Structures are given as structure tokens and as C-alpha cells.
Amino acid sequence: MDGNLQNDIEKIVEADRAHVWHHLTQHKPLETGEPRIIVEGRGMRVWDQHGKEHLDAVSGGVWTVNVGYGRERIANAVRDQLIKLNYFAGSAGSVPGAQFSEKLISKMPGMSRVYYTNSGSEANEKAFKMVRQIAHKRYGGKKHKILYRDRDYHGSTIGAMSCGGQDERNAQYGPFAPGFVRVPHCLEYRAQWDLSGEEYGQRAADAIEEVILAEGPDTVGALCLEPVTAGGGVITPPEGYWPRVQEICRKYDILLHIDEVVCGVGRTGTHWFGYQHYGVEPDFVTMAKGVASGYAAIACCVTNERVFDMFKEDMTDPMDYFRDISTFGGCTAGPAAALENMAIIEEEGLLENTTVMGDYMLDQLHALKDKHKVIGDVRGKGLFLGAELVADRTSKEPVPEKHAQAVAADCMAQGVVIGVTNRSIPGFNNTLCYSPALIATRDDIDQIIAATDKALTKVFG
Ligand SMILES: Cc1ncc(COP(=O)(O)O)c(C=O)c1O
Questions:
Q1: What is the pLDDT of residues 184-200, one digit of tens each?
Q2: Are 59 and 81 contained in the same domain?
Q3: Residue 193: which of 236, 184, 244 has the closest Cα?
Q4: Cβ of 431 less than 6 Å from ligand 1
């Protein structure tokens, strides 16, 4: 921050209050209350305008800052690249763009092409457009429908919301684009079929096949899924789900689009991507948040060669290629930051740390569940975890969202930032969310768990 401004934080607060429209925020209370300004970050911690330290258990609020704050080597790499060349449209290549694509593809067997863009929503839109163009090129436009799942989220643009399974997020923003069709969610805790384990997973996948058959397989071009649903309640897939999903896609020649915007680049531990835990072979993989940990805006729509080949079949046809551009997909800061981000994860063994610390944190959340009957279910993978709060364990009635929010607010007052699902599923904004940076230590996790424990006692007794 500029020195003069730093001396006068009140002016910053006033400027913010007067002119900034915050994301996901009802501004009325800020007419009298003070907006929160995050001024500085280091490692797992951030400081606000009052100098108050917070342990960030949500990687920048929305599962993004995977390698933690204050990474000088990323800043230096971005600076060096910006001085050399900040930008040229993506119709040309760039040095970091080529280097990062090679590195990324080396982590994604079966995939081969990286289309650069600059947000998760936009990366998903690229995949949707590719699916639509394939439908026109191959099937006279008929095989154009895109299936999406109840509770999944794919972004904030009207196209991505048309593919959005979170009704509260979508309310008041319609009408949406045609050609997107919903399939049931796979959350076993809120079971839709009287089965369990692998049988449940296969049944939840069979529900997708039922939708395909009802719509007509010759009208369905793609299926878009989060590997582990994030904002819809941290939903890990049941056993048996993914193999059956893959089988169904192959059976009806439906392209499989995996949205790794949250899971991607280490968040789930051991593997670079969430889908790699389940042996899935996708046609599209989209990613954003953790790709450069928020040090620069970058997102990617990655495809396999089969998809790529469909866009260079007939050189004599002026309409044959992917006629799309993302202006800021040509910014070089993104891939320059992403290269360093990936190098840090490798050099510091953060995939392994995420697995070990994720297992530890899951155990600690289970211990909290034993202590607090308000926790109905604990789930997640790696450092991507959730605890669903219920008023009654038998009926599984969700706690009022105000109570879940009170838990997060109390943690914040204690100096620990946790998340809670919000404006997502009507009546089900009741899951506490945790996604600490992949550098988290046992001490950090103990502090997060202790704050949650205290907050649960305060709110629920
Ligand atoms: C699974 C998933 N996909 C896509 C998006 C959209 O990403 P962005 O906000 O960068 O457009 C999000 C954002 O939270 C997300 O969670």
C-alpha cells in the first residue's frame, strides 16, 4: 500500500464504503458499520485494517490461495515477465504460456491442450461452447444438451448459471440459456434412494442415465460435474459413483467435463486433480482458483486430443476452428505465476502435506462431531472439508442458516476465518467449510478446530 494511504487507513475505509461494491454482500449494514479491509498476508495469516491477525482457514475466502500468502518468488517471476512482455493476444503464443502448458499436461495423462482464459466461469463457458460447436459440426446441432448436477456450481455468468445446480444462487437472475438439464445430486447423507455404499453410488449414477434416456441420448452432448462439490456443501462422491458415470458417458458418446476450479492443483491431496482419485478419463478439465493461488488471474480449459482434433478437420472451411477469444487469456502474468505455484507445490511436497494434514483435520472434525451433536456429517478430501450442522441427528433437519453463520462469525471474532455455505441450496446453507492453504501445519489445524469447538459451544451450548 502507498505510504500516505497506509498512514490514513480511515480514508481507505471511507473510499471503500463510498465506492466499492463488494461481492456477495448486502451493503445496508455497511452504511453505519465498517467494511473489512484485508491489508496484508503472510503464510496462512492475514491482517485487517486494525492490524488484527487472522488465521485463514479458507485460502482467501474462496479456496484459492493454495500456496499461502507472501510468496516472493511468484511475485518476482510475475514482475520479470511483465517487464519482458506483459501481454499479447492469445492467437499468438507466449513463453510462459508454452512452458506452463507443458508442465500442466505432464500432470494430466490423457489430456493434451490448454486453452487460457481468466476465470472459472469463463473456462467453463469455453467448454460449453466447444460442446455446442461439436454438436453443430458432427450432429447437425442436435447433440447439444449439457447435463449438470443438483448442488454443483460452475460460475456466475448467465451461461454458467444455466448450468448451475444451486437454486438460491440462481434465483432472480433468469431466464437462463436453454439446453442445460439437471441430474440428481449424489450426497449420500441426504439419500434419495434406500441403499448404501457402492450400491448407493451406482444408483446415483444410474439417475444420470435415466435423465439421458428421458432427454434422448442423441440430444445430450456433455456431462459437467465437480469431482467433489464445493459450495453446494462439500460433497464427496459415494463409492461406485465415478466408474459408473464414466461407463454411462462412454455408452452414449457423451463428453465428460470435470470442473476442477476448486479441487484442482493439489487441494484434495496426493493427486494434482480431484478426478485423478477416481480413475476418471475426462474430455474437458476446467480449473482456475489454485492454478496460480490468486497471485495472478488465470484459468484453463484443458481438453484431450480427441476434442482438439475436431476443431481442425477442414482447413478449407472458414468456420471449422474454435472461433473464440479471451482478451485477458493473453496476459502472461497468469502462466508465469502458475509455473512458480506448481514448482512450490512440488519442491515443498505440498501434495503429500495436504493428504497428511487433510487426514488429520478430518479426524479432528470427527472428534468434534463426537462432542457436538449439532454436527450431523463430516466429509471432504485433502484440505477441502465440510461439517454439516443439523438441529436433530435423526431427522437431519438443517440448523437455521443464521446459526451456521453465527459459528463462522464467532470464529472470525476469535481470529480464525472459516467458511459456511451461503445463498446456495434453499434451506441447506448449513455446512461449515474449511480449505486452509496446502502449507497448513498441525498447529494451524489445532487452532482452527479449537476455534470451531469454542464457537459451536457458544452458539449451540
Ligand atoms: C466449482 C466452481 N466452478 C466455477 C467457479 C467459478 O469461478 P470464478 O468465480 O473464477 O468465475 C467456482 C467459483 O467459486 C466454483 O466453485
A1: 999 999 999 999 999 99
A2: no
A3: 184
A4: no
